[in-house]
Specification:
Helix content is 0%, strand content 52%. By secondary structure, it is an all-beta fold. 27% of the residues are buried.
């Protein structure tokens, strides 16, 4: 809660002019130029000064009643008096919300006059509760004085003073030094400055505000809420994606293969660890190299995700004489028997690259003929790359698409693509022995 000292900020000057035995008039003046927010527990201090009272025969008593608004609670009253004067115990009425203040001359001789500053009464009130639409009211409507046994009383001629200058708008005048973060970093408000604009146009810088930090673990543009008293405002920061620290790989269950086999990912798990201390399973997004094994020995498999990589090893062997050569790639089966490469199954032959070859490439020297059986719908890029000994090929009518460089460096001289509807750009590139292509 904002604490504001109001002592001397509210000052009421009571001017009393008395001639003979009658009170002529009373005037009041209220200075409110510096009062700010109104909060429970805040102290309101009012100084009442009696100025230049003259009464024939001397002044013996002086009293007045202050009626205060419901949002105030009377606290204390003190007085500075001339020698010989005694301050009465203030009489407070909490029901009527009034306090009666008075003083009496106990000296042997009544004072002929009270000059400026001879009598000063300081009243303190406490704000009973927070409010943002009420006004503080102090009503000096009953003032009286006595002289030479005669009491003069005037009612209804005092002034009623009210004051309200609420904080109206909270504004960010300077953003924090740091407004861009990476997920997982802590939020800092260093450099943040705010000001409050009051209803009278006064602008005051405030420091006792609270900042509600947003979720810093996820990326995005975040609203930061700043509160001062009952006012709040927001500003935005940007939280970028977390930094990838590392990946951890649990190798697949199968670690022994034959040349031409494709990596079986069953059991493999790839976990990405981020700088914000979070982890994510990225097994499906990670890439592996090689995907198919073309050489024997202990082969290092590299798993990559984002900018990080990890490895594990597998053992690759050559199939023994008489054993079947072939394998399965998704829904595609392949085999090499008596020099014939047969590719069958349902769907597309996968796409390969110049560096990541098809599994049958390892048996290129044995393959003299290629058969793409019914059910295969697509021949992927580089599918029959390096099959230089293959001089003939049969392609089923179920094949509707052929990819780039699918016959590169092969020995094929003629090919019939009777069912093909889509031919990739440069499909026949580097097929140096190809002479004839037949379409339906």
């Amino acid at each position: 809660m904002k604490k504001i000292l109001l002592t001397s900020l509210l000052s009421i000057v009571l001017i009393c002019v008395v001639t003979a035995t009658a009170l002529a008039s009373y005037g009041f003046e209220l200075n409110t130029s510096e009062l700010s927010s109104v909060e429970a527990g805040q102290t309101v201090t009012v100084d009442v000064t009696v100025d230049n009272i003259t009464v024939d025969g001397g002044i013996e008593t002086l009293d007045f009643v202050v009626k205060y608004s419901d949002n105030l609670t009377y606290s204390t009253a003190t007085a500075t008096l001339p020698d010989g004067w005694e301050f009465w115990t203030p009489v407070s009425n909490t029901t009527d919300k009034t306090v009666k203040i008075g003083a009496v001359d106990e000296g042997a001789t009544a004072n002929p006059a009270i000059n400026d500053g001879d009598i000063t009464v300081t009243l303190t009130f406490v704000v009973a509760s927070d409010f943002d639409s009420e006004k503080i009211t102090l009503d000096f409507s009953n003032v009286g004085a006595s002289a030479s046994g005669s009491y003069a009383f005037v009612s209804g001629i005092g002034n009623s003073y009210e004051y309200y200058n609420a904080p109206e708008t909270l504004t960010v005048t300077s953003l924090p030094i740091k407004t861009t973060y990476t997920a997982g970093q802590s939020f800092f408000s260093n450099g943040l400055k705010l000001s409050v604009t009051y209803t009278d146009g006064t602008v005051v810088e405030v420091t006792d505000f609270t900042v509600e930090a947003p979720d810093m673990m996820t990326e995005g543009v975040k609203d930061v809420v700043v509160t001062w008293g009952k006012l709040s405002t927001t500003f935005r920061i940007t939280v970028n994606a977390p930094l990838l620290s590392k990946i951890t790989v649990t190798p697949p269950t199968k670690l022994s293969y034959y040349v031409g086999d494709a990596l079986d990912k069953t059991g493999m798990k790839v976990i990405a660890s981020y700088a914000n201390n979070t982890t994510v399973d990225v097994t499906d997004e990670a890439t592996v190299t090689p995907a198919t094994f073309t050489a024997t020995g202990t082969v290092t498999v590299t798993v990559k995700f984002g900018t990080k990589s990890a490895t594990f090893t597998v053992t690759v062997s050559e199939k023994s004489s008489g054993s079947e050569i072939g394998g399965t790639i998704n829904s595609i089966e392949w085999s090499v028997e008596n020099g014939v490469l047969t590719v069958s199954g349902e769907g597309a032959i996968p796409t390969y690259t110049k560096s990541a070859n098809a599994p049958w490439t390892a048996y290129a020297k044995q393959i003299t003929k290629i058969v793409v059986a019914d059910g295969v719908t697509e021949i992927g890029n580089y599918a029959f790359y390096k099959l230089a000994s293959a001089t003939s090929i049969e392609v089923a009518d179920s094949v509707e698409k052929v990819g780039q460089l699918f016959l590169r460096d092969s020995g094929i001289t003629e090919i019939a693509l009777l069912g093909v509807k889509v031919v990739a750009l440069n499909a026949f590139g580097s097929a140096t022995n190809l002479e004839t292509v037949i379409f339906s």
